[in-house]
Design brief:
Blueprint (H helix, E strand, L loop, with lengths): L3 E6 L6 H14 L6 E6 L5 H8 L4 E5 L16 H5 L5 E4 L2 H6 L4 H13 L3 E6 L3 H5 L3 H16 L8 E4 L13 H16 L3 H6 L1 E5 L7 H5 L6 E4 L6 H13 L2
Parallel strand pairs: 1-2, 1-8, 2-3, 3-4, 4-5, 5-6, 6-7, 7-8
The structure holds 1,3-dihydroxyacetonephosphate (13P).
């Protein structure tokens, strides 16, 4: 049985005082549990704070994006190596907000994926379709293209030890969660796509669902065979909601 992941994506939210209160409350509700992983992906300036508050706890930390370059004249970028210096484990790459607001293409996202790995970080590679794409019947085509961009450039073996997240754009921050069946259908499709290249990697790969996951719907989503946990936006900013999702991941095992 694959482990379950509960990963918070704080997005561009937080403050030193607010983070401290939030993490203190989350720490009170999250203890190490076999087969379950918990993490928060914080804005870059808070990596140091995350390390000092979370080191030695059951909660890992990470960032939400990473430069595709290792170092040099790339004003404004932050390398995986810099992030790793703060004890971070994860780097989200290809989040739909990076793709749509900041122009990250499939080609850029797969470079960021490789850069994260070079730095020893675990990439969380995000894919997902828009509502228009789903409604016009091209969901599988879109997901296949996003997954194939990685498989073609770096091979299925590059996903060994990585994490994938299916985040339908229409469910992000909208309160409109995919049904458990919709999430599982898309995630089973993604897994099959990878299995066609490497069945072993596909079988072991954690595929998370993201998009309006809450304490009230997490258990049903996480009970699905191809849903290995969640990437949590809004609910990761409220300790009691995030802890409720963590508990749901335990109940789903
Ligand atoms: P919400 O949980 O706020 O819908 O955000 C999901 C997300 O984008 C996580 O990466």
């Amino acid at each position: 049985m694959r482990p379950k992941y509960v990963v918070g994506n704080w997005k561009q939210n937080g403050s030193l005082a607010g983070n401290q209160a939030l993490l203190k409350a989350v720490l009170a509700g999250v203890a190490a549990a076999p087969g379950r992983h918990c993490a928060v992906c914080v804005p870059f300036p808070y990596l140091d704070q995350a390390e000092s508050l979370l080191k030695g706890s059951a909660i890992a930390w990470g960032c939400q994006d990473v430069s595709r370059f290792d170092k040099g004249a790339y004003t404004g970028d932050v390398s995986g190596g810099m992030v790793a210096e703060f004890g971070a484990r994860y780097a989200i790459v290809g989040h739909s907000e990076r793709r749509t607001v900041f122009g990250d293409t499939d080609a850029i996202v797969v470079e960021k994926f490789a850069a994260a790995k070079r730095s020893g970080l675990t990439p969380i590679f995000c894919v997902g379709e828009t509502l228009a794409e789903r409604e016009s019947g091209v969901m599988e085509k879109v997901l296949a293209a996003q997954v194939d961009s990685l498989l073609e450039k770096h091979g299925a073996a590059s996903l060994e030890g990585a994490v994938l997240a299916y985040e339908p754009v229409w469910a992000i921050g909208t309160g409109r969660t995919a049904t458990a069946a919709q999430a599982n259908e898309a995630q089973a499709f993604i897994r099959q796509r990878i299995a066609a290249k490497d069945a072993g990697v596909a079988k072991g790969l954690a595929i998370l669902y993201g998009g309006s996951v809450k304490g009230s719907n997490a258990a049903e989503l996480f009970a699905m065979p191809d849903v290995d946990g969640g990437l949590i936006g809004g609910a990761s900013l409220v300790a009691e909601d995030f802890v409720a999702i963590w508990r749901a991941a335990g109940a789903a095992r």
